[in-house]
């Protein structure tokens, strides 16, 4: 290791968090680097968020930003720097060769960033990544820097993935086509149905995307077995007690959630939005009765067919309740690739292309959240105390709705018909089940209130999230790194 890359403890810490360049990774990453920077641990703590160049341009859409893409900029609290991922177009790798080329390009770019910080007297003392970034592991070994993984999904997903790659893959794969088959995994309080597993673990299509996910996660857990990096999980202990206890037997886990921003913390919105539109929907919400509004949003990547959107609108209208529906124009795509608009649907509610979701969920008028159940949306609903109607589709969403409905009892899952469509009748039924006056609705609302109080206590200044983050920072010592021969220093070997 070169002299200018040594990290004397008295100079404090510098965390470099490398995030995947999509909305669901950017905001929890942003919250984490801000909270790291504000910790008081006896020495200065600096944090830098690094994203692909394409994402950086969307985060800072100005001519000045384009001129400084290769140097760090700051918002006054944390720094930002872009790296070249080998494509510069926001696309996903096409095949194994493309993945290898992009990994090499990302590694070279991140290595140059690390060397640049060291040359400027701000050496990186810990590299971090959201869920998994193989180039980060490569660069950490090259520069003798410890690594921490920021797991932005629930601890249950961490356990499922961990055990899949530690002896359960054949059992799960052999029953992938039987959605009702149950698998007992260590730490889970009950058997998990195949239909509730993350989609890429039970996908038998053989697609390039699925193969890529499997290969990347397999290498991730090979890495954790060998080097045992710290793992920060965006959850809190009371939410997943048994599974967190189980995973602490295998990994150095720190629960640092809920990592949900607030009105006083910066948030990044990668999609264009209009402040005039924001005033319009907030004024509309202000005019509604308490807990009367159905808020509907399916995340930043979901695309819905015209048939599906017609059913959703029909179900909202059948419910007889006011609704706020968020759907981007590019999220309205028919099977033939054409787009459609939502006209004459706003007599009962409001349709917008974008909203500040946390601000909406925090509003007293919102009574339930019809969601795709991505983890960011799920944890924001928990923090806001809003019951959930789950419409899961892919990735971690089937597991998250399992937690919502069966573990925490703060929502219900809609059932799709034989064509995979959520019908208006089914949506209206679920809205009544959650927002009505029946015993199930009462239980859901009470459980939502209880979890909200626990989540907010954890997130408060001095709460468990801050305490655990503080403990994590104190564990990052100068010798928690790779030796120059590529082996790990004895202090953090398993």
TrEMBL record:
Family listed: Belongs to the UDP-glycosyltransferase family.
UniProt keywords, alphabetically: Glycosyltransferase, Transferase
Top-level EC class: transferase
Alphabetical list of InterPro entries matching this protein: UDP_glucos_trans (IPR002213), UDP_glycos_trans_CS (IPR035595)
Any one GO MF annotation of this record: glycosyltransferase activity
EC number(s) per entry: 2.4.1.-
Organism expressing this protein natively: Urochloa decumbens
Protein name per the record: Glycosyltransferase
Lineage: superkingdom: Eukaryota
